[in-house]
Amino acid sequence: IQDFMFRKEFVTNKMEEEVHQNLRLHGVDLYHGLATLDDPNHVRVIGTKEEVLETDFILIATGSYPTHPE
Question: Can you give the pTM of this predicted structure?
Fold first, then answer.
């Protein structure tokens, strides 16, 4: 089971790295924290500091776990 857990951790980390690299490649900024939508074009993010972001597009990624259909 130790080999399985090592492989799982390796694959999970590799997938996360690839997602972050793809986001950087496309110029996507990441913000971590608690967010509220002030209006259709403004997001208030409270993380290490509070920021109000103005944008045309908002992507909310709450986290997920990979699933593989049987």
Answer: 0.58
